[in-house]
Amino acid sequence: MEDTIAALATAPGRGSIAVIRISGEKARAALEKVFYPKNPWEPRKLLYGFVRDDGGVVDEAMAVYLPAPHTYTREDVAEIHCHGGPVPVERTLKLLFEAGARPAEPGEFTKRAFLNGRVDLAQAEAVMDLIGAEGEAAARVSLDLMEGKLSRKVGELQSALTDLLAETEAALDYPEEDLEEMMKPALENRMAALQGELQKLIDNANIGRVALEGFKVVLAGRPNVGKSSLLNALSGTERAIVTAIAGTTRDTLEETIDIRGLTFRLLDTAGIRETQDTVESIGVARSRRAMAEAHLVLVILDGSEGLKAEDQAVLASLEKGKGLVVINKGDLPDQMEDGELQKWAPDIPIWHVSAKTGEGLESLKDALYRWALPQPLGSAGLTHERHVLAVKAALASLMRANAALDGDMPVDLLAMDLHECWEHLGEITGQVYNEFIIDRIFEKFCLGK
Ligand SMILES: Nc1nc2c(c(=O)[nH]1)N(C=O)[C@@H](CNc1ccc(C(=O)N[C@@H](CCC(=O)O)C(=O)O)cc1)CN2
Ligand SMILES: Nc1nc2c(ncn2[C@@H]2O[C@H](COP(=O)(O)OP(=O)(O)OP(=O)(O)O)[C@@H](O)[C@H]2O)c(=O)[nH]1
Ligand SMILES: [Mg+2]
């Protein structure tokens, strides 16, 4: 028998109402020892009453009892909605623990929903992603997965594999038949189609991951071009210190902004130049590391000064296909020579802005959005590294199956590879799992979820 667990389901701290959730066989008994309703108990009905201990009233509250199996965990569940202060919450929890419940571990309610088959692993993970979502895009992708979008896709791929397996196994039963002649071309076609679908999932994985984790944009450039001013202008804050002194920013600084629902992590960096200053040179090293780790680098130039050797050095160090040039200080007379810039930044898109007046910032934001999400959000499928690794492993198994077919290997080897492919896909939904991985996933959940 599983323990009965209880925990605060709402955020800790002060709020108008706090929800305490209980799940397990003793949920109802524990609730009845702690909460005294004004009217008789009725399942699935929120009742008014009092939390009491031996000394009297602990809180005026509401509570509900939900019998298994139609509950979040598929076990008996109860909830107490008490006043949202630490004292009523702690006292009510203590009473529940005395009444036979124990404190829940992080993610334990949702882990039970998974172990009891109400949701699969991808859906359970998506619950946590929704709670962590910073913007609409992250929420949208999480909701799709929570509702079963990825799980259905995995199911379709698995049933195609099952059909393939059935056919190869039929061939196993008739070893005297000539497999090659009979079914090789048909099998090859269907394996190629499956391979294409797995590859598409991998190719689109960055959409879901960018939606969930945000898109990392680094503002880089030589000192004084206006990187910090741009960070402030784009985020509408005064987060970064701005001065006319070159070398003002010493350390990288992150600010999160929302563009059309998508989260962007903007990173202001120390101006890149040769320097003898110890602190500044550490800052410059951090700038370079940030450029390497970013999804996109904005190379900021000062349009009022023209291209300098230090700008050229930054442009030269830019990874191909990973940068935009942003010419700042558009409110001042333009000194930038297009020919010179073309020489150092061939094929790099160029945007003109002014951090001071805000000119050009909206279209820069549009460009950032298009860069981050070249495909619509709806084409997102995989959202976690774990999913990508599983699909890559499935693809590798499928390629082995293909090679086995090509090399006229025995049919049972082919069947084994197809089966492995099926199992790797099952890692995503948790059909195939080991406890270590499950624990690692759920321990990252919030307490009470
Ligand atoms: N008060 C409260 N609000 C909450 C939750 C909760 O547990 N309690 N949730 C949870 O964290 C979320 C809602 N998610 C839920 C998902 C499934 C079920 C559930 O009981 N499912 C049953 C069907 C119930 C029915 O048909 O009436 C099932 O799948 O069998 C409940 C909540 C967000 N809001
Ligand atoms: N006229 C004008 N001045 C600007 C603009 N953007 C920044 N500045 C000025 O340029 C100077 C340098 O700005 P910062 O934002 O500190 O430049 P930075 O690139 O962060 O410099 P470091 O941190 O030293 O690398 C400040 O005096 C700003 O006020 C702009 O669009 N127009
Ligand atoms: Mg700065």
Secondary structure topology:
Layout lengths: L4 E4 L8 E7 L3 H8 E3 L9 E7 L2 E11 L10 E7 L2 H13 L3 E2 L4 H8 L5 H12 L3 H12 L1 H25 L5 H25 L1 H9 L1 E6 L6 H9 L17 E7 L2 E7 L9 H16 L2 E7 L6 H8 L6 E6 L9 H7 L5 E3 L8 H12 L12 H22 L4 H19 L5 H8 L7
Parallel strand pairs: 1-7, 8-10, 8-11, 11-12, 12-13
Antiparallel strand pairs: 1-2, 2-6, 3-4, 4-5, 5-6, 9-10
Quick overview of this protein structure:
The chain has 449 residues and is α/β, with parallel strands linked by helices. It has 16 helices and 13 strands. Ligand FFO binds at residues 19, 70-72, 79, 118.
Written account of the structure:
It is found in: Cytoplasm. One of its GO terms (molecular function) is GTPase activity. InterPro entries: G_TrmE, GTP-bd, GTP-bd_TrmE_N, GTPase_MnmE, MnmE_dom2, MnmE_helical, P-loop_NTPase, Small_GTP-bd. Its EC number is 3.6.-.-. This protein has 449 residues and is α/β, with parallel strands linked by helices. The protein is 47% helix and 17% strand. Strands 3-4-5-6-2-1-7 form a seven-stranded mixed β-sheet. It has a six-stranded mixed β-sheet with strand order 9-10-8-11-12-13, with helices on both faces. Helix 4 runs antiparallel to helix 5 and helix 6 packs antiparallel against helix 15. The longest helix is centred in the middle third of the chain and has 25 residues. The chain is flat and about 80 Å long. The protein binds ligand FFO, guanosine-5'-triphosphate (GTP) and magnesium ion. The site of guanosine-5'-triphosphate (GTP) has 23 residues, from helix 9.
